[in-house]
Amino acid sequence: PYVVCEPCINCKYTDCVEVCPVDAFYEGPNFLAIHPDECIDCNACVPVCPTEAIYPDDEVPEEWQHYIEWNRYLAEQWKAQGFNITQKKEPLPEAEEWRNRPKSEKDILT
Ligand code: F3S
Q1: Distance CA 51, CA 13 (A)
Q2: Does ligand 1 lie within 6 Å of residue 24's CB atom?
């Protein structure tokens, strides 16, 4: 499956959800996660993400390896709360400002 990594934090452009043929994205306040049991490895989301946040699980950069498990955990949490996202919406207000800056993992849930 594909994995959303750190660059999504504080941006959440949501172009990815629009192209996902199986609606595998789940939304939290500052981040999206892909449910690994729903992703069909089609690759459609990778080229449309403005922050280049999405990687196949076997190509996730070393420093973001823990995002593999976090995508599962967060997608399950957010799925249980009904937070499936299938349509593009406005990015977070400061998305452009954060686009090329390092993000903080603690912002995922704030
Ligand atoms: Fe995030 Fe990129 Fe999607 S910034 S919401 S993974 S298009």
Answers
A1: 8
A2: no
Average pLDDT score, the chain: 97
Here the ipTM equals 0.95
For residue 109, is pLDDT > 90? no
Q: What is the CATH number of the domain that holds 72?
A: 3.30.70.20
Separation of alpha carbons 96 and 77, rounded Å = 28
pLDDT in tens, 49-75: 999 999 999 999 999 999 999 999 999
Say how many Å lie between the CA of residue 51 and the centre of ligand 1: 7
* Ligand 1 binding pocket mutation candidate from 6, 20, 49 (most atoms within 8 A of CB): 49
Find the domain containing 79 and state its range: 2-88
State in Å: Cα 46 to ligand 1 middle. 9
CB 13 within 8 Å of CB 75: no
Q: How many domains does the chain have?
A: 1
